[in-house]
């Protein structure tokens, strides 16, 4: 290949030689870059020089200024040969014609020939770019069709051998547009054919090739390096369209709820994402959103009961304000932070004690603001009350009674209701309901005792306090206010109210009149206690009044007849032996017990040794045999005393005639006391005179009465039983032989024309079984006062003895 090429070059050189033969001056045309030694032309021949003389004439090639000897002369052949490399580009650069001027110098004679060597260009240079690579920074926002000028490539060669064309490596975005400047210089432009996308491809590299027109063609390349600059053409993109988070309520501040993130494909400030809430409302002040990190944190107290979920729009913005949006959903989960609250919706207060078991007393409502199990509430009530809670419709409970109420036992209830929720840990609260029980008049007054006894000594003052009764009624106020009253009844045919009265308020029983033991010894009344309810309830009690005896009656001598009535004379046979019963003094005492226990004494006698009297029998007996010397007329004064304290007594006189024949009896009036016998004589005389005077007066009165009441039969003894001839009243309380009192004795009716105002007009048959004589006798009023001291402080009040 190289051979043929040289042959061609030679051919060209010869053509030049042929075209420009010159005398004096020669011109040659040679391609550049001929090998050293190559023959440019035969100068000797061309100049007609003598070949043999060349060396002698010291033919040589000179240059005017060049130091470099490009050519030389072969003195043997006369050939002009290449001595140094001839580079057209080095000699002439871009000049269109490049002539290398040489001179042939000959001496002897000096001869000078100009040699013009026209150096022809060969394509020995490739197009070349200034740099190895071209850098472009192009905004991705550049429009299609935008142009970017490229550096041109340089080629040392000229003409056709210079840069003729460019080609661009195939790529997605750019095309090449080749343009020509003045001087036929060609350069290229990059034309944006398809928009750039930094995010798609940030760096683009492709090769630009410049071609010259030589043959063979040469080329040069440059790498075009396009950096796509960012344009804020990307909005930030959230990683999720909806962020969901769940958070327990009451979470402390700064608790991290969730982190949102958005990415922006842009760079620098265009890719800097700032987070924020889309718009500010109350809701999102509860949370904070860190603009840089996207952390959502708790900013304020979160209450599930106020808001159970939050929905917010959040935005992500880049530096130039492109934004996108996402939804943030935060579900709040419930914490058991609310205790149940108990509301008393209604209450019947007070409740009457007679409500039937199961009656509804109140309605209770329980509320818990928490939800689910945290809001499930159980209600309970303390155990020891007769109430219970009955669940009603949702969260409502009825408070009902479980048993019979009794105000008198429990009048107030503090009912504690406890409500507990089912959270974990559970919360509870309690409420105390005060309930009072209203009274119903369900209790009758009850006397403290089953019966009462009152003891009073006779001859009491009217109005004196006997006793008091008390009844209790546990009911309230007027239902428990007790009023006492006597139940109507009769005592001995007279209304009880004429005997006793009871203080309605205090229950103190007073005597209305004076009681006389000898009239009656006891009686019973019924006292009623009634409350003030409506209707009232009542109960009654028996009060037995026992009248105790006072020694207020003197013994009453029945035989011999009281003095002044008549002188009765007993006959004593002269032959009577000692111990013979001569007569008997009969006396009674209206009192009872000791007060009626009589004793007989002879206080005066004609002959003190002759007669004796039984201390308790009143029997007069002879003490010794009667003798002739004894006075015929004997006179005894007998005193009868009771055993009361102080004792009362009565005296009587008895006349005894010691005689066997009544005819011997001297006149009664001759019977007189023996002057020497007793100092009593003078008293007796006074007594006899006064008795006689009294007797006469009595006779006159009797006659007067008789005259006035002629039709009325005069009864000396007008009782049920007349005194028998023996002068002993039947059932007379006598003293038996042993000298002890009989435990039971009776008074029967005696009527007498009595000489005393206190003579009995009436004695009811009284069987004293209820008052044993020994008991009455043993106890004095002061004894009773000791035992029953607090019954009544009044000395007049008889003791209250509970006979039950
Ligand atoms: C009920 O509670 C009140 C006040 O706390 C108290 O005064 C009262 O004695 C209580 N009643 C009962 C029956 O416990
Ligand atoms: C007394 O009882 C009656 C019913 O028997 C009742 O209506 C009344 O309220 C009660 N009085 C008082 C003061 O509690
Ligand atoms: C007194 O009470 C008794 C029972 O306590 C009763 O049998 C009687 O009838 C009552 N008498 C009067 C007069 O109320």
From TrEMBL:
A single GO BP: homophilic cell adhesion via plasma membrane adhesion molecules
Record-linked SUPFAM superfamilies: Cadherin-like (SSF49313)
Key words, A-Z: Calcium, Cell adhesion, Cell membrane, Glycoprotein, Membrane, Repeat, Signal, Transmembrane, Transmembrane helix
Major subcellular site: membrane
Topology in membrane: Single-pass type I membrane protein
Transmembrane region(s): 683-705
Domain Cadherin residues, every copy: 73-129, 130-238, 239-342, 351-447, 448-557, 572-668
Cell location: Cell membrane
UniProt signal peptide: 1-24
One GO cellular component term: plasma membrane
GO MF, one annotated term: calcium ion binding
Reported function: Potential calcium-dependent cell-adhesion protein. May be involved in the establishment and maintenance of specific neuronal connections in the brain.
PANTHER family in alphabetical order: CADHERIN-87A (PTHR24028), PCDH2G3 PROTEIN-RELATED (PTHR24028:SF114)
Protein name as annotated: Protocadherin beta-15-like
Origin organism lineage: Eukaryota, Metazoa, Chordata, Craniata, Vertebrata
């Amino acid at each position: 290949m190289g051979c043929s090429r040289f042959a061609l070059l030679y051919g060209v050189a010869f053509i030049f030689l042929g075209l420009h033969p010159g005398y004096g001056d020669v011109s040659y045309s040679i391609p550049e870059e001929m090998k050293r030694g190559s023959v440019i032309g035969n100068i000797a021949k061309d100049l007609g020089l003598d070949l043999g003389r060349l060396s002698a004439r010291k033919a040589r090639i000179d240059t005017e200024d060049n130091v470099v000897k490009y050519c030389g002369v072969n003195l043997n052949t006369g050939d002009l040969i290449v001595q140094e490399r001839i580079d057209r580009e080095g000699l002439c650069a871009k000049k269109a014609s490049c002539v290398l001027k040489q001179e042939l110098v000959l001496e002897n004679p000096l001869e000078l020939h100009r040699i013009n060597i026209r150096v022809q260009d060969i394509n020995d240079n490739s197009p070349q770019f200034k740099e190895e690579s071209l850098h472009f920074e192009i905004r991705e926002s550049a429009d299609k069709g935008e142009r970017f000028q490229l550096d041109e490539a340089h080629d040392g060669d000229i003409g056709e051998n210079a840069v003729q064309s460019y080609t661009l490596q195939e790529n997605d975005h750019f095309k090449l547009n080749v343009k020509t400047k003045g001087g036929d210089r060609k350069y290229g432009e990059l034309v944006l054919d398809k928009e750039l996308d930094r995010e798609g491809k940030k760096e683009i590299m492709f090769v630009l090739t410049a071609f010259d027109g030589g043959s063979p063609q040469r080329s040069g390349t440059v790498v075009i390096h396009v950096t796509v600059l960012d344009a804020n053409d990307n909005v930030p993109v959230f990683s999720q369209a909806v962020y969901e988070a769940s958070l327990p309520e009451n979470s402390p501040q700064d608790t991290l709820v969730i982190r949102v993130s958005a990415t922006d494909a842009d760079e620098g400030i265009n890719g800097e994402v700032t987070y924020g809430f889309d718009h500010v409302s109350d809701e999102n002040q509860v949370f904070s959103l860190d603009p840089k990190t996207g952390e959502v944190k708790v900013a304020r107290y979160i209450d599930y009961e106020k808001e159970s979920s939050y929905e917010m729009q959040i935005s992500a913005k880049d530096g130039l304000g492109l934004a996108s949006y996402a939804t943030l959903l935060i579900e709040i989960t419930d914490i058991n932070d609310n205790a149940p609250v108990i509301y008393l919706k209604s209450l019947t207060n007070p409740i009457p004690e007679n409500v039937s078991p199961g009656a509804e007393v109140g309605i209770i409502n329980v509320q818990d603001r928490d939800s689910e199990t945290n809001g499930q509430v159980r209600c309970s009530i303390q155990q020891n009350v007769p109430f219970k809670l009955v669940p009603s419709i949702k969260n409502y409970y009825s408070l009902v009674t479980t048993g019979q109420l009794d105000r008198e036992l429990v009048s107030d209830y503090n009912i504690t209701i406890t409500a507990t929720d089912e959270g974990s840990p559970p919360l509870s609260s309690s409420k105390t309901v005060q309930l009072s029980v209203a009274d119903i008049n369900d209790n009758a007054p009850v006397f403290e005792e089953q019966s009462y006894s009152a003891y009073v000594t006779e001859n009491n003052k009217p109005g004196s306090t006997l006793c008091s009764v008390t009844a209790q009624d546990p009911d309230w106020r007027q239902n428990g206010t007790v009023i006492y009253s006597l139940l109507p009844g009769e005592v001995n045919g007279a209304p009880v109210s004429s005997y006793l009265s009871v203080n309605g308020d205090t229950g103190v029983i007073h005597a209305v009149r004076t009681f006389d033991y000898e009239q009656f010894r006891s009686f019973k009344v019924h006292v009623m206690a009634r409350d003030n309810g409506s209707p009232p309830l009542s109960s009654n009690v028996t009060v037995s009044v026992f009248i105790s005896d006072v020694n207020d009656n003197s013994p009453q001598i029945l035989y011999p007849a009281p003095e002044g009535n008549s002188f009765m004379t007993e006959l004593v046979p002269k032959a009577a032996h000692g111990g013979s019963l001569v007569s008997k003094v009969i006396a009674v005492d209206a009192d009872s017990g000791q007060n009626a226990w009589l004793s007989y004494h002879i206080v005066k006698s004609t002959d003190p040794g002759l007669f004796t009297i039984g201390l308790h029998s009143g029997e007069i007996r002879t003490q010794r045999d009667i003798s002739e010397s004894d006075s015929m007329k004997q006179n005894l004064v007998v005193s009868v005393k009771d055993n009361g304290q102080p004792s009362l007594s009565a005296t009587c006189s008895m006349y005894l005639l010691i005689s066997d024949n009544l005819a011997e009896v001297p006149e009664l009036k001759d019977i007189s006391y023996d002057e020497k016998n007793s100092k009593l004589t003078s008293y007796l005389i006074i007594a006899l005179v006064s008795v006689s005077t009294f007797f006469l007066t009595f006779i006159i009165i009797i006659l007067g009465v008789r005259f006035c009441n002629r039709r009325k039969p005069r009864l000396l003894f007008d009782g049920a039983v007349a005194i028998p001839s023996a002068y002993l009243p039947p059932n007379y309380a006598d003293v038996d032989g042993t000298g002890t009192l009989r435990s039971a004795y009776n008074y029967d009716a005696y009527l007498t024309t009595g000489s005393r105002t206190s003579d009995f007009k009436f004695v009811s048959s009284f069987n004293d079984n209820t008052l044993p004589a020994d008991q009455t006798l043993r106890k004095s009023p002061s004894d009773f006062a000791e035992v029953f001291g607090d019954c009544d402080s009044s000395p007049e009040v008889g003791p209250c003895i509970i006979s039950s």
